[in-house]
Amino acid sequence: MNLPSLERLSCDVGREHALLAGDREPVAVELRSATKGVPMNARHCCYAAEFALPAGVRFEQANYTLVAGDDTWPDLLMTPIGPDEDGRQLMQVVFHYPIPQTTVACPPEV
């Protein structure tokens, strides 16, 4: 699965992205933060991003597609987390996934 990295998201803080939700017209959302999270163990990666919706727009928790320039990230579970200081609804997506491990050959059985 193609996911945005924490580094990519960190570079995009303050920029607008397009949020696609089913039959609705695309909505311009502002990436407010990208922060490192706490993975469940050393074999996992965890980080989160918060997006501000336009004033007066409200979305429910659901899977959305996020578009940033030429990149498209489908099926991101986004959750409303409350209003920002201006009253705009914030949506959060948490990325938590296993880090690909190097395959190690098992020793031959004796």
Condensed summary:
The chain is mainly beta and 110 residues long. It has one helix spanning 6-12, and strands at 16-20, 27-36, 44-52, 62-68, 71-83, 89-98. Strands 1-2-3-6-5-4 form a six-stranded antiparallel β-barrel.
As a percent range, the share of helical residues equals under 10%
Q: Termini distance?
A: 39 Å
Domain module count: 1
The helix-and-strand class reads mainly beta
Unreliable parts: none
What series of H and E elements makes up the topology?
HEEEEEE
At CATH level 2, the architecture is Beta Barrel
| Spatial shape | globular
Give the spatial strand order of the biggest sheet: 1-2-3-6-5-4
Number of strands: 6
What is the count of DSSP helices, taking H or I runs of 4+ residues?
1
Portion of residues in beta strands equals over 45%
CATH topology grouping:
Thrombin, subunit H
Classified by CATH, the class is Mainly Beta
Q: What does the main sheet amount to?
A: 6 strands, antiparallel, barrel
On the 0 to 100 scale, the average pLDDT is: 91
Radius of gyration: 17 Å
